[in-house]
Amino acid sequence: MRTMQSVVKLRGWVQAVVAVALVSVVAACGGGGSSSSDNSSNALNGGSLPPSPTQQPIDPSAAANKANTVPITVGPGVNGVINIPTVSVTICAPGPASNCQTINNIQVDTGSFGLRVVSSVLKPSLLQALPNTFGTSGAQLAECATFADGYTWGTVRNATVAIGGETTTTSIPIQIIGDLASSTVPAKGCGSGSAENTASDLGANGILGIGTAPTDCGATCANASTAATYSNYFACPGGTSCVRTAVPLSPVNQQVANPVANFPVDNNGVIVQLPPVPDTGAASAIGTLVFGIRTQSNNALAAAQTFTTDAFGDLNNSVYNGTTVSAFLDSGSNAYFFADSSLTLCGSNFAGFYCPSAAQTRSITLVGLNGTKAGASIGILSASTLFGNSSNYAFNDLAGQIGGNSSFDLGLPFFYGRYVYYGFDQTASGGQTPYVGF
């Protein structure tokens, strides 16, 4: 899931093409193992896959881990969409923590920034109690968060956010998806594609954007000159007649904010930990989201390599097939997405995905702004083979095509069996530069 970037959410391909086949009631089976399933050799069809990483997530229920962890679940979720990692998030109205609601099936998205919740899953009393945010003109703020296949539209409101054992120090701006009438969507400046303002459209009850940026738009939307053309925020007097507007970062931030960056401690980054899964997939996978890096005994920086990035977590000097690409590690994309004409595309049943006749291995060289350079190998099995088992929701070797050859999306398949680190951009306060690692 990518907001305010040239390469954005790609999950909708799976939802539109495959969700009907995958909607079924599945009993959770835990994390899955690192070995291949019995029919793996048939799936390889003479090809080969790279060795699967084997790191196992820490136990979030252990006493030492409860304060700064929360379980991640990959399973059927709210609408049977594959490879969507979710957590539970508690939202409270500002003030005394009495009007609160815990919402399950919020997607963990390291490719976007800020919390977005579908309005229909909120209790009416809580929704009414979340105060609107007002822009410099005094008009109510709304946001159009644009993605590759659509957009979310709704008001910006303030809420206190708790995840696992951590709670934001104050209320922060979040987006409430779908609480404004479709007739209020601006004809100009709101993303192309279809509206994704329901849980069914999203495949989740909301999106938890915990990538490297502290807010979802930063200086682009704070600066009036750039906001006039590029801001994803709109001033809506009376909730209608919405026009693009600048939204300040100081003295009080009004942009949708990364909740983890607003925790009192453990606020400098996150670690996404998912277990290995078999080559042909698993019914589910249970992992752990860890808050903070090098702040507790359970979140040491143990990455084999770390790469400093631009503000949005992108590795813009990476190389694939001899071409410089912008690579990113994105838990919000449910497959690898990249351009490779040597890979056979699926037919219309699985349009947009790769269906090679035999298992394939591809490698990309990731390059950080700090000069760190490392190769990463990925495996690819035919999407038609993987989707042949309609009870599986966790896949580590699913890949699809992306428009153009300038981007390489290391989606959720890359995360299985790895600890993936995201160090937040704290340069505005004289702190660390953003980085990723694994």
Would you kindly provide a written description of the structure presented here, covering whatever features stand out?
- This protein has a 6-stranded mixed β-barrel. Strands 16-17-22 form a 3-stranded mixed β-sheet, with no helix packed on it. A two-stranded parallel sheet has the order 18-21.
- The chain is mostly beta strands.
- The radius of gyration is 21 Å and the shape is globular.
- 9% of the residues lie in helices and 30% in strands.
- The protein has 2 domains: 234 residues, no CATH class; 143 residues, no CATH class.
- The chain has 7 helices and 24 strands.
Q: Largest sheet at a glance?
A: 6 strands, mixed, barrel
First-residue to last-residue Cα separation: 19 Å
Reading side by side through the largest sheet, how are the strands ordered? 2-3-10-4-8-6
Shape label? globular
Beta-strand share of residues = 25-35%
User: Any idea how many domains?
Assistant: 2
In total, the number of strands is 24
CA-based gyration radius: 21 Å
Average residue-wise pLDDT: 89
Structural class: mainly beta
Q: Which segments are poorly predicted (pLDDT under 50) over 5 or more consecutive residues?
A: 1-38
Share of residues in helices: under 10%
Total helices: the number is 7
Pfam families: DUF3443
Region (Disordered): 32-62
InterPro entries: DUF3443
Biased composition (Low complexity): 35-49
List the helices and strands and how they pair.
Elements: H1 12-22, H2 40-44, E1 69-74, E2 85-92, E3 100-109, E4 113-118, H3 124-129, E5 140-147, E6 150-163, E7 166-167, E8 172-177, E9 194-195, H4 199-202, E10 206-210, H5 219-222, H6 224-230, E11 233-236, E12 243-244, E13 269-273, E14 285-291, E15 306-308, E16 315-320, E17 323-329, E18 336-337, E19 360-367, E20 373-380, H7 383-386, E21 399-400, E22 407-410, E23 419-423, E24 435-437
